Amino acid sequence: MDRKKYLVVGAGFSGAVIARKLAENGKNVLVIDKRSHIAGNCYTKRDANTNVMVHKYGPHIFNTNNKEVWEYVNSYGKLKPFKNKVIANTEKGVFSMPMNLLTINQFFKTKLKPSEVESFLKQKQKKKENPKDFEEQALAFLGEELYYNFFYGYTKKQWGCEPKELPASILKRLPIRFNYDDNYYNSKYQGIPENGYTEIIENILKHKNITIELGIVYNKSDNKSYEHVFYTGAIDSYLDYKFGRLGYRTVFFKEEIHDGDFQGNAVINYCEEDIPFTRVHEHKHFAPWENHEKTIVLTEFSKETVDKDEPYYPKRLKPDIAKLNSYVTYAESLEENVSFVGRLATYRYLDMEKVIKEALDYATYFLENKKENTIFKGAIFSNKI
Ligand SMILES: Cc1cc2nc3c(=O)[nH]c(=O)nc-3n(C[C@H](O)[C@H](O)[C@H](O)COP(=O)(O)OP(=O)(O)OC[C@H]3O[C@@H](n4cnc5c(N)ncnc54)[C@H](O)[C@@H]3O)c2cc1C
Predict the structure, then answer these.
(1) How far is the CA of 36 from the centre of ligand 1 (A)?
(2) Which positions fall inside the UDP-galactopyranose mutase C-terminal domain (predicted)?
(3) What is the pLDDT of residue 373?
């Protein structure tokens, strides 16, 4: 057993996966988190009033095509099959999302077959050679009616700006299915843990070489006490906002308890600009294998991240990317025993499967390349190996 201590800052999936891999390789690991609980943004807890499992920072559906990742999470807890079927509440009525043949046929009052959708949409699309922003890209894919009914208001509320100000890359793929498949994800493996994500992360962290301390804010001056530090917090915060704050959107929730079934589905998107919230989540529908008489409903609002707000979605606008490059260059120039891992430290939106895979690969890379009693100067960002 290596008595030198390794520090992992953050007890989300990134921190837990790294800590486990180090511990299994005989390293002595301390995991700290500033929150009073483990599991980061994937934290789930049963609501005391309804006994429904609530995803406290927003609903999480595990989905991946990666067998290794799927087997990894399943080895720490049971995932039950779950297909996310979203409903869009719009000015013109209630429709199925992601957009599929049912959405189109109901919206345009048509009876199109799969082979007819492409040419039908071609008449609607406002094609541009090189769409330069989100709006141009959406109009090129969908045309005006679908774009304004489903995307304009929702995007404006979610990102707090005109869709014209957002990069075209946000809408990479045509968000339309030419059949009646209304499953939100395309991934081969999809599910939700039977007993919540917290239990899975608790099991990952359950190892004799791992100690956990909660409610502790990381202090950089402690770095010297550790052989190496794995930091999964925000990169701009680590470097004391030296180049300014990176832009994030955050969300907050209004909670209500009702009897019975409130909205008949796990998620309903509200697409109209005048409705102040973006989505309503009814958490008992994320666990259809359970029965509950009461129901807990969370209405999601989106806003800019300021001061002590939790950073949720990286905006990655041009000025953010310029700042990020300055942070990365500066961090790489430091002679410090720190690695930056996970969604906040690398300033990317990452699904859980990506976070787990990257943490597994990074820990393997670290263990293979770290030389005893030297500062680790391999790639120090988990996305750079
Ligand atoms: C609303 C929402 C919905 C999502 N839905 C899905 C989904 O359906 N499916 C999916 O695959 N993914 C989803 N995700 C993504 C998922 O949440 C992330 O992939 C995952 O949480 C990333 O894990 P992480 O460990 O990198 O970061 P986090 O979970 O954020 O963990 C980082 C931890 O570090 C701690 N920390 C930060 N700074 C410090 C500090 N200075 N000192 C001490 N501790 C610190 C934080 O408290 C936090 O607990 C969703 C994300 C959001 C925001």
Answers:
(1) 14
(2) 149-349
(3) 82
Query: Using omega within 30 degrees of 0 as the cis cutoff, is the peptide bond preceding 98 cis?
Result: yes
* Atom number of ligand 1 nearest to Cα 60: 8
**Residue 272 covered by a domain:** no
My answer on whether 344 and 230 are in the same domain is yes
Do both 320 and 239 map to the same domain?
Answer: yes
Is the same domain home to 241 and 332?
yes
11 in contact with ligand 1, CB cutoff 6 A: yes
Does 303 map to a domain? no
Which residues are marked as active site?
173, 177, 249, 279, 300, 349, 351
Determine the structural domain holding residue 105 and report its residue range: 86-171
| Together in a domain, 324 and 219 | yes
Protein residue closest via CA to atom 14 of ligand 1: 351
Please tell me the predicted confidence (pLDDT) of residue 279.
Answer: 98
Number of domains in the chain: 2
Q: What is the DSSP string of 50-76?
A: T--EEETTS---EEES-HHHHHHHHTS
Structure-token pair, residue 240? 């004391």
235 CB less than 6 Å from ligand 1?
A: no
Does residue 289 sit in helix, strand or coil? Answer: coil
Q: Provide block-wise average pLDDT over 10 residues at a time, the chain (385 residues).
A: 82 98 97 98 98 98 98 98 97 96 98 97 91 93 96 96 90 83 95 98 98 96 93 96 96 98 98 98 98 98 93 93 97 94 96 98 96 87 94
Alpha carbon of 329 to ligand 1 centroid (Å)? 24
How confident is the model at residue 106, as a pLDDT? 98
Residues 6+ apart with CB under 8 A from 327: 235, 236, 239, 242, 243, 246, 347
Phi, psi of 31 (to 5 degrees): -110, 125
Distance of CA 288 to the CA centre of its chain: 22
Of 352, 354, 356, 381, the residue with max ligand 1 atoms within 8 A of its CB, to mutate for a pocket test, comes to: 352
Would you state the torsion angle of the CA atoms of residues 210, 213, 219, 224, taken in this order, to the nearest 10 degrees?
A: -30
Give the per-residue pLDDT at 307: 85
Q: Are 107 and 149 part of one and the same domain?
A: yes
For residue 342, how far is its CA from the centre of ligand 1 (angstroms)? 8
Residue 218 in any domain: the answer is yes
Same domain, yes or no: 321 and 232: yes
Looking at the fold, whether 163 and 225 belong to one and the same domain comes out as no
In a domain, 276, yes or no: no
